[in-house]
Amino acid sequence: MPADVIHLVRHGEVHNPTRVLYGRLPGFRLSELGQRMAAAAVGALAGHPVTALYASPLQRVQESAAPWAEAFGLDIHTEERLIEPTNRFEGKRLNRRTLADPRHWHLLRNPRTPSWGEPFTSIATRMLAAMTDAHERTDSGEAVMVSHQLPIWMVHRAAAGEPLAHDPRKRRCALSSITSFAWQGGAFTEIGYQEPGAELLENATDLGAV
Fold it and tell me: Sign of dihedral through CA atoms 203, 62, 82, 58?
């Protein structure tokens, strides 16, 4: 039997004192608060039959997956398709000054693609393919896949039949949140959303991708 449920888990808060858009840049680890968030996410599924664990290759996600591996006695399978999208604003502070710079205007020409990074359609396609493979490869129980805000949000919108283009400020995908999906009628259906570290979010800095 394939996996009953796929849980998409976002990583915890990142140590980012310069407040840049870190994207795929190396060296961005979890903050102390982020480590607590990751542990809180694991606690939310205590008692669930989690039998497979996948994670994006980026450091903050591998660190967020570590408590899952320890709690459920699982190996972390690094899954490249769960990675953060490419973004031409990586390493920059995403503020009015950056966006007002004429050198960046060509990157903003089409927010529906988006023109500054990996197309939304590409993100959704690779995420759903990774989820389908995890669903089929897991003998039974539930699979946890630790990823990033935008990839998880793309799955949410694709599963709901909503346009992939959206306002980044309106994403419902908090740090260390869990968005759960079941395979029903030949497609993934969202069945739940949790914010296990909700009380920790008040003091967190969240610089999710645009």
Answer: positive
CA angle centred on 204, ends 194 and 177, rounded to 5°: 15
pLDDT 10s digits, 27-64: 999 999 999 999 999 999 999 999 999 999 999 999 99
Q: What size, in residues, is the chain? A: 210
Nearest to 55 by CA among 10, 15, 90: 10
d(CA 106, CA 97): 15
DSSP state of 108: G
- Amino acid identity, position 27: G
What is the C-alpha to C-alpha distance for residues 204 and 147, in angstroms, rounded to an integer?
Answer: 18
Sign of CA dihedral 101, 106, 110, 116: negative
Residue found by looking up tokens 């395979």 in the block: 183
Q: Among candidates 63, 36, 62, which has minimal Cα distance to 200? A: 36
Widest distance between CA atoms in the chain: 55
